[in-house]
Sequence to fold (111 residues):
Amino acid sequence: YNSNISLEKLVVEQLISGPNSKEVYPTINPETKVNNVTVKDGTCYVNLNENFLTQTYNVTSEVTIYSIVNSLVELANINKVQISINGETDGTYRETIPFSTVFERNLEVIS
Fold:
């Protein structure tokens, strides 16, 4: 862990790099790049590139989104997460989840 990188960005980058096991799939396209991650008033703003929109594994939209959200809200200073693509929040993820949403923890997607 390099102290020059925020813990929030490290969490997202680790999710993108995926698990160390060949028996489970990553929840996020490994080609995704983190443009930036900022935190303000308990909300973490995660700005990803367009590769995030392409899912390479059979993972539901909710699992992808909440893998990020649920991981980040485990940090003491974060209560909510907003995800954007290249700074834009006017699109949707896989035509089902609007990026304009400010997400909160959702434990229903965990099995």
Observations:
- The mean pLDDT is 93.
- DSSP finds two helices and five strands in the chain.
- The first strand starts at residue 34 and ends at 40.
- Residues 27 and 67 are 7 Å apart (CA to CA).
